[in-house]
Structure formats: structure tokens, C-alpha cells
Amino acid sequence: MNAIEIRDLEFRYLGSRKPSITVPYFSVSEGESVLITGKSGSGKSTLLQCINGIIPHIMNGTRRGETYIFGESVSKARLPDISRTVGTLLQDPERQVMNYRVEEEIVFAPENFNLDKDTILQRMEDAIQGVAIESLRGRETTKLSGGELQRVALASVMSMDPRILILDEPTSSIDPEGTREIFKFLKNEKGKRTIIIVEHKVERVLPFVDRIVVVDNGRIVLDGPTDRLIEEAHNLIDLGVEIPSHILIANKLGIRASGIDEVRRIARECGMIPHERARSNGGPVAFRAEVSVSYNKNFSLAAELACRAGTIHAIMGRNGAGKSTLLKGIIGFIDKDQAAFSVSMDVEDKKLRNPEMRVAGQYLGFLPQSFDLMLINSTVEKELNYSKKVRKLNGVDELIENLKEIFSLSDYAKSDPLTLSQGQRRRVAMAAMLASGAKIILMDEPTSGQDYMHKQNLGREMAQLKGLGYTFIIVTHDSRFVYEFADWVTVLNFGKVALQGTPESIFSKSEYYGVVPPSEFVLRYENEQLAS
Amino acid sequence: MNSLLVELISWLIFFFGVGAPLYLIFATIGIRGFKEITSYEPYNALLYRINPIVKIALSITVMIVAAITIWWIGAFLTIAILASYLDLKNGKRKLVIGMLFVISTVVGTAWGYAPFVTSSILSIAFSGYHPVVIWTWPSYFSIMGYQPQLTLQAVEYGLQISFRTSSIMMSALLLVMTNTPSQILRTLHKISVPDSVIFSLMVGMKSIPMVFTYLDESIKIQMMRGLGSRHSRFLKPFYMLIGGIHAIVPTIIHLLRGAKDIAISADTRGFRATKKRSYVEDVRFTRADYYAVVIIVAILGIAGVAILLGFGRTIPYVT
What is the predicted ipTM? Predict the structure, then answer.
């Protein structure tokens, strides 16, 4: 029996001329696991919303055609009734989780379904064990890391015992270990229920799904078994799909193997080894910081960081290792009444100790994860000129014009930044930060939730800018991005620097600290080097 | 008096009325302080053991009593509720933040009324009204709706009205600081409050601390980008205010994007699936609740006695 069936579906949002999704026919059998991928804005989320009933019950627009869940029409059923069958994990756990304690969050749905107390408690236990969050019992959801919160959100969906499970980028804010836990869970669930998973990390999901669906420009452009990924690898890159390096090599070799070890063996036999990545040694040390943060007994961080001019410096580590705290410590964003902290830094031949933000801002720029909060002006032009205006900077007009070119913003100069697409907004925020005159740029999870195309664009922009003397310090979990673009890596563990070095030297021993090497690294280097 | 001096003092008074509450809010309470008094923190104390139903009843009682009795009963209730903040986690700090908030509210509300209240209202409010003029505004202040003169009674009137709102705010914050959103949800369901109202409250309880977090982050980024960098540190509260105003639009847009997800999160997890909702934790009444009920009855009793003694008042009959 088909768990999901879509017939002649077309949906366009209010005010949009073009349909966001057009699906003549699509079905998923009961117990099947399907990966849906494609670039941001391709229509993946709209497709999910047509399945879980958000469209037409919450989202307004023009719709024709129908979605059926186990033969029942989605548009005719009430949304709360659909939720008895379809469980949905949203992309951003901070927005999904509503309750204060972990247990309250997990029982939220069973309580809504008016189940008896014993059943609710049993469901809660099953969900906690299924998602392996025993250690989070009794914790406050407001104090969990992104990865922990994501797993709590997943447990809250599992407590509904849904026949269809929809996971919208379930690992977007999780470290590799958390990601592994989620995929371990998926492996256990495979076949027990119908699973639809939207994910950019194709490499990690592939072993757990039966089928891959690629959406582009509102249409399904590929739908088939996972082997099709090898056949279509190069076409899919153009569609913004992140193809694992070993699949690309398998494609070049014309082999059907999809396991990394097998591809690696054959590639080596054929002499096809990925080339060594060029790293920039940079100029003299442009920035040095010593940060110490202490949140009572709960967490403390003591780390030293040194970055050479014109390099990209990645900070990696598990969720809760202190990566974001380190960034916030450097820029002085930590509340003094919440934590004891001190920072001393050497930048542009100046020594600063606990500088005020407005002083630190002369040398440092910060791009937060929620970059929309930066966009306070009514046009892109004004946004780029903001620092010039408030700092009365001279001689930055040429820089601003260059930034407009680099970030392709000239055509949007008169547009309101908040009305632009996510990728454009990110570029405006980044350009505005660079226009402040700061040369040391700190970025918190710039690749989180971004598709492959956007990540590649970001990496290329950063590479171009480091040639102009900018130094980047980025917090990320994305090993592949780091391997492709970073020059230096610092791995944090429990608030201390555990490893520092080039990506090649780090990835050979970083797994112990929760940093998984990317497949390109695994393909290139010898087993002995990996083991060391 | 020298007309220039009159101008100067008039504008100083004007800016005091506008600026003092804002100064208290931005320079002394701060965004962090607001977040603290609008968020739940777990703690083992009497106030945390009181059932949310009883706290809601207390808030309603305070609202009614403050609305129908003389101003100083409202003032007394404000002080009493503020004193109870000492029982909260970090009680002293919350008491200080609460007091600053009350002062800001009182100054803001009083100044929002005093210059505008007409003598006809004051003559209703004060029996045997003999205006005591404390300041005469320049004539062009009438463009802003100001009365020609500021009287002592007008200031008194504004102050008295402010105490009708301050006690209600303090008791509502008490509920938010001592109960989780799910405890409140459970309670409201029990007393058959409509789901749409409950949902709005839940979104509010989830969003309010986030508003302060986003505002805080946006203001800090503006500071890094140079806001106020060319001026004295003493002007920082002023620039924080400017930064706060600039941060409103991105914060609201960010929140609205989030609010849609909260609605989806609730609806895709069976919210409103059935008319009845079951609970793992029962709504129980403990000894603490009986103490609280006694206090509610006492407040109602005091209000009754006050009314019998001739201290019952509603706006505009405040004194």
C-alpha cells in the first residue's frame, strides 16, 4: 500500500506567479525510506508541507491536485488528525521545542492526543531510549546545545509513534557525533515506518535510504534508487546537490561501488587520487587572543588563538565544546552577570584587554548565525554604508564598491535587505560587516543549513577576500568545507584547545574529538595516516 | 521668570518624562534584566509550589481590587507583591529589577497623564478642586496636547493611576517567573480557557525571552559596527535606545518567521486534536495553595472593608 500518494499537485504561494511545486505523480510505499534533496528554495520544504498537511491547512496559496496519506485526502482531513499518522521534525529545533523540561516536551503530543497516563509514560520511555537521550532527563530545554535540542525534538515526534516520519534537515545544527546518533536511530527505524528525510548531507544519509528524490525549480527531476546518484553525479552537482567525493570518483571510474573503502581501493589501483589541497601560510600573525570564560561550575573555557593574516581559521569540536563561547568571548558578547570572562588580544600592533564592543569592532567583524538581525537599514546601499556613516570613516567608498561587486549586490542596491532571498541576505550581511573596516572576521556556523551551492559560493568569496588581506575565524561542523577552504584548524574539547594544525594534520586524529574527516581526505591519505 | 529659562525648564521636564523611564529601562534594567523577569527558572521555594490556577486567581483579584479601590491600596499591593520576589531564585536581584520596572512604569504612566489631564476631569477626581499650579508651559506646548498649566493635582492624579497598573504587572510577572509554559497550559486547559487563547499565550511565553535575546544581539552587533563609537561612554544608554529602535524590524521579522514554525510545531503534534487533554502530571493543590487562597480572601476582605469605609474608587474618582 502507498503510504503517500500525490496526484497532479501544484501549489503557489500568495503573491507568487510561479508555482513553488508541481508534481504530476509521486508515491512512497509503506516502510520505504526516501531522501529528498536539492538546493535551497528548490521546493523541498513545500513538498513536505503538502505531505504533512501544513499546505493547505496553515499556509495559504493556490493549490490544485491532492495528496493522500494511506488513501486519506490531506485537504479533507483536519491537521491534528493528520498528525496522528504523520510526525514532522522541523529544521530548527529552537523553534520546534516549546516546553521547558525535556520530559514535558516529549509528552506534549501524547497529552494532546488524550492518551492515558501509562501509555504516555511508556511512549516517553520508548522515545528517550530510541533517540538515546537518557542523559538529558530532567534538563531544561533552554539550556541544551543545538544537537541535544534536535534529539529532544526528534524524541517528541517519536512519542507520537507516527506511521510516517518526516525529517526536515535533522542534522543541520548537530556535530558529527550527534549526526551519527540520529543516523543510528534512522537505521533502527528503517522498514518499521515510512521515512522521508530532507538533507543536504547526502553522504551521511545515503546508507540509510532506499531511494533518492531530487527537487529543482519546483519539480522532481530525479526519482530512483540510490545507485542513480553515481550515474547522475555530475548533473546533480549542477542542481546544487552535495555529492560525496568518493561517489564522484566512482562516477569517473565508471564503477557502481558506493562504499568509500571500495572506491578508495579501486581508485588507488587506477592511480586516481584526489590532489593535495593548497593551503595558505599567510603573512605574519594578524590576531592573537586569549579568552577565559567561566559559567559557575557548569562550564569553563580557556583558549588561545593565533591567526595569520589572509587565512581561514576553522574552529571545530563537539556541540558544547565551547566554540561559540570562544567567538562570543573574543567579541565581548558574554553577559558579565552570567559568567566571569576576560579576553586579551593583539591586533594590528595593539594590545587590547576586555575592550568595549565598539572598540573591538574597529578591528573585528562578527557575522552571527541569525544574520537577519544585522540588517537594520532600509536599503542594501544604506546597510553597506552604515559603518562609514556612524564611524565617519574616510576612504572606504572604493571598498564598498568592490564588496558590491564581489557579493553581486549592485542590482539590489536599492532593495530592502530583509525582502531578499536567504543567500542574498547572507551576502548583504557579510558585505556590510566587511565594510565596517574590520579585517578579522568571525563567523558563527556560516555553513549551517546552507546547500552545497551556497557553501561553495561562500568558500569562494572567502578565498577571494583573504587575498585582499582579510582573516576569517569560522565555527563550523562542516569537515568538507574546512578541508576545501580552511588553512588552519583548532579543535576544542571541553573548553580547551585539543588540536591545532593544517586540516591534513588535524583530520588524521580528530575523530577522537568528534570531528569526522571528510571523504576526500579519506580517499587521499593512507590508512596508516588515518589511524595515527 | 526669564522666558529663556522657562523654555529650558519646560523642555527639561518634557525630556525627564520621556527619558527617565527609558533610561531606567535601558541603562539600569537592561535587556538581560527584562529577560530575567519574564523567564521561568527552576527553584524550590514557596512561590514555585503554588498552583498556577491560584496565581491566576491572585492576578485577577489584584486587578479587580486595584481597579475599584483607592490608589494607595494599589500601591500597597504593588509593594507587597514586590516583597514576595525575595522568595524567587536570585530574589534580591529580581526585587531590584522589579522595583526599577515599577519606578519606570510609575514615572512613565504619571507623565503620560499629568500634562494632558483637563481641569474638568481633575475637578471630578478631587472634591473641592483648587488647582495648585506648579508650572506653566510655553503656549506652543499645546500643539503636543499639553494643558496650559501643570498642576500638583494633575501629577497626583497621574501617580495614582499608575499604581492601578503596576500591581497587575507585578503579579502577572510572578506567574511567568514561577511556572513553566506547560504548567500554565495544563492549568488553563483545566479551567476551560479556549485553545486559541492558550496557544497565543504559549507563543507569547516562548517568544518574549527570545525578543530580548534577539534585541540584545542586534544592538551588540550595531555597537560593533560603530554605533555610538564616536561619542562618550555616558551616552551609551542613548545609543542603546537608538540601536533598540533599529533592531525592532529585524527582530520582529525574525520572530514572525519563528512564530510560524511554533504554530506548525504545535499543530503537527496534535494540538487541538481532541477536546480533552490528558496530563502526566496532575494539577494538585498543596498547603502552599491554601495559604495563597487565604491571602486572596484577605485581599478581597480588605477591599470590601475599604469600600465600606468609603475608599472605593474607580477612574476618574481616584482620591
Answer: 0.82
